[in-house]
Design brief:
heterodimer, A: mainly beta, 1 helix, rod-shaped, B: mainly beta, 23-stranded mixed β-sheet, six-stranded mixed β-sheet
């Protein structure tokens, strides 16, 4: 990889007495630094559920869910894109 | 006392474990029981879509169950139990019993698994190749011949044109320098290498908590209630553990660490009501235990650019490979006892006075490693004393005012740590990276940063502007005076104004604005930025240059002492605006809009930090029938932070 010292930044002043170290320590002359920590993600969560009563005591419940995570700028924790589908079914009794 | 309390707790638990039907008499027993199952299927990573485990952490199905049982006979006995069992990793169960208000007991249990982040450690590798250029002759090479993968340790700059002319692995440019205005710059020989040694490992912690509480009010003393409680919290699982070896290179490794922590709380208290006065005393005893410490073997310390196995840097390193397995990433065990006394007086016109005093003591165990570092004490004690006073009253029918003041004092033992290098320096300046003596011992007196005095004062006013409109004003003053003079004093003023109104029968609005003005926020003083100028030029091989080596202005203790810039991630000014509005044109439809904007900034002596946060939410609720309702929510979150600092490279 390149040494930082040999990557002349945009806007560098060639008349400076110290072209390397001034550039190293003056981060305002560096380009692209502000994008290093860009993070962007989208998250969607959809759930639908309901119940049906066969009688005042006996009932059925159902639920379905969908979750989506889109990592547009994977960084420290890697690509965390993922989807989850879930389905639940239950039978209940009231007394 | 503790024996009595344990009996009360045992009684509550036994009572709650009795099958509820045994109490049943006629229609007094009601509730519901539900059995079923949940199936989940994942695509790609499940770490974020299932961060808090909903039922399973992998594809498949498991049984689920719910119950809500209630027993209310006419003889004053009440027993209730609820449970939501979504699988082995997500459960909540709660039961309570009330025997004629003489005895109340409750028992709660919950389990939840939380997936943790896994740092891939794949973003910090860096190496500045030292040597590798004309290893035989060590002659300078014209800079045009330098390839990106073959970076010289030193470069020669033509001072007249400010251009880099030559590269070299030794820094000896005496054969090519013009001897007038050329100078040498050391680009370094450092390297950093990071490895994730368990890339497939999924880290997660399962938190399990048992909580039992019991209250006893003896009929002969109806104004006095005794209560006891017990809480057992376990955190079990694996977490990522990151450590670093040096000095051959900065070798960062990520491994897996077993987590096995237990927190046990025992509480006992009494509450007495005597006319207008209510008094409460509470005692807490907490014990925090951890499992065995994780261990690590570190790399051998070697000086870069020297033969493999060299021990040149052993005079500046306290441990390396030869020390074998060493404890790493440890969490100290601790014990805590606290006492709370609280009194409340209820007067006329909604006037109340509340006073409180809390005192606590925490003892934390510390373990040293003789031969590497020793501590002057094996236990650190922290004491806390807090005094609070709150008064609330009403002026007329429209204005309600409350004032609160709190004074706290935290005092933690100072500790002295003595570090020992592998070998003693052969001379006072040999390989020096800190102020070690010839014995290789260096003692550091550490003043606890937690020791401080905190004063908080708050004034709240609520004024009814109209029948359905309320204005709230708040001012808070907080002063933290730290014993450690380097971090000194932080003073914060917070102003908040909010309005809550119902514009008509269908539309309501809440809005608030908060401004925080923080003087000297918590920061790391003189943490970065060594000024580099021509005044620290020093010659190497007869050519002036910025030489990173020895105990020079760019190395050793002098380098660190020269840092000027304060660093912090805490703001000095905070503006926050919140707006929430709900529109409900019909009884079965409602739409709610949330807006939040937060602007934070600080202006330190060498840098400025800014952060803006935007948060918008829109929620719709619609119930076409009594048995069917839909909810749809959209949330947008945007946060942008800017800081004018990055990690500079450094040799060593």
């Amino acid at each position: 990889m390149n040494s930082f010292a040999l990557q002349w930044p945009d806007g560098f002043d060639p008349t400076a007495t110290d072209p390397v170290l001034l550039a190293l320590y003056d981060v305002t002359t560096m380009t692209g630094v502000e994008t290093y920590s860009d993070l962007e993600y989208q998250q969607v969560s959809v759930n639908i559920g309901g119940s049906y009563s066969f009688s005042p005591a006996l009932y059925l419940t159902a639920q379905a869910g969908y979750d989506l995570f889109v990592d547009d700028q994977p960084y420290v924790y890697g690509d965390q894109d993922g989807e989850m589908y879930s389905v639940s079914l239950g039978i209940g009794y009231r007394f | 006392m503790q024996a009595i309390c344990k009996w009360l707790l045992a009684l509550s638990i036994v009572a709650l474990l009795i099958p509820l039907p045994l109490f049943a008499a006629g229609d007094d027993f009601s509730g519901s029981v539900e059995l079923g199952g949940t199936a989940v299927d994942f695509t790609d990573s499940s770490s974020r879509v299932n961060e808090y485990i909903s039922s399973k952490n992998e594809d498949g199905a498991n049984a689920t169950g719910k119950f809500d049982l209630s027993f209310h006979p006419k003889n004053g006995v009440v027993a209730e139990a609820t449970g939501d069992l979504k699988g082995a990793r997500n459960q909540q169960v709660e039961g309570l019993i009330d025997l004629n208000r003489i005895f109340k007991g409750s028992l709660k249990y919950n389990v939840l698994e939380h997936r943790l982040d896994h740092d891939r450690l794949d973003y910090m590798d860096a190496a500045l190749v030292r040597g590798g250029m004309n290893k035989t002759t060590h002659e300078p090479v014209p800079i045009a011949a330098v390839t990106p993968d073959l970076v010289p340790a030193f470069v020669l700059v033509d001072g007249a044109t400010n251009t880099v002319l030559y590269g070299s692995d030794t820094g000896d440019f005496s054969t090519v320098a013009d001897g007038v205005d050329d100078y040498v710059i050391q680009t370094g020989g450092a390297s950093m290498y990071a490895e994730d040694l368990v890339p497939e490992q999924a880290f997660s912690i399962t938190r399990k908590e048992w909580k039992a509480d019991a209250e006893l009010t003896v009929p002969a003393m109806p104004n006095v209630t005794f209560d006891v409680g017990y809480r057992n919290e376990k955190r079990e699982g694996t977490d990522q553990s990151i450590s670093m070896s040096k000095c051959s290179s900065c070798h960062v490794t990520g491994e897996s660490k077993e987590i096995n922590e237990t927190t046990e709380d025992f509480t006992a208290g009494v509450t007495g009501k005597f006319g207008l006065l209510t008094v409460r005393y509470e005692f807490l005893d907490r014990k925090f235990d951890t499992g065995p410490a994780d261990t690590r073997i570190y790399d051998s310390s070697m000086k870069p650019g020297q033969p493999f196995g060299n021990t040149i840097f052993d005079d500046r390193i306290t441990y390396d490979y030869d020390d074998g397995l060493l404890p790493a990433d440890t969490v100290p065990e601790s014990e805590k006892q606290s006492h709370l006394v609280k009194a409340r007086v209820d007067l006329e016109k909604d006037t109340t006075l509340i006073g409180s005093y809390v005192t606590s003591k925490v003892e934390s165990n510390k373990t040293d490693e003789p031969g590497i570092f020793t501590l002057n004490k094996s236990k650190i004690t922290t004491t806390y004393d807090g005094y609070g006073l709150k008064a609330t009253t009403r002026f007329g029918k429209k204005l309600k005012v409350s004032a609160r003041i709190k004074a706290e004092k935290i005092d933690t033992d100072d500790i002295s740590a003595t570090f020992q290098t592998i070998t003693a320096p052969t001379s006072p300046s040999a390989g020096i990276t800190y102020d070690a003596t010839n014995t290789g011992l260096f003692t550091s007196d550490l003043e606890s940063l937690s020791s401080r005095d905190v004063l908080t004062a708050r004034l709240n006013a609520v004024y009814r502007l109209a029948a359905k409109t309320t204005l709230r004003l708040k001012y808070e003053y907080e002063n933290e005076d730290r014993d450690d003079g380097d971090f000194s004093e932080t003073t914060a003023h917070t102003y908040k104004a909010s309005i809550n109104t119902r514009l008509n029968r269908k539309l309501s609005l809440r809005a608030s604005y908060t401004f925080e003005d923080i003087d000297n926020p918590f920061h790391n003083p003189e943490a970065a930025l060594v000024p580099v100028g021509d005044n620290i030029l020093q010659a190497k091989f007869g050519v002036p240059g910025y030489i990173v080596g020895g105990n020079s202005a760019l190395y050793g203790t002098t380098f660190y002492d020269a840092r000027e810039a304060d660093l912090t991630n805490q703001p000095e000014k905070v503006h926050q605006l919140k707006v929430t509005s709900t529109w409900a044109p019909k009884g079965n439809f409602a739409a709610t809009l949330n807006l939040r904007y937060k602007d934070e900034e600080n202006d330190l002596n060498h840098s400025q930090w800014e952060q803006q946060t935007y948060n918008t939410g829109l929620t719709f609720w619609y119930a076409p029938t009594a048995d069917l309702n839909f909810t749809m929510a959209y949330n947008y979150f945007d946060q942008r932070a800017k800081t004018a600092f990055c990690q500079g490279f450094y040799d060593g």
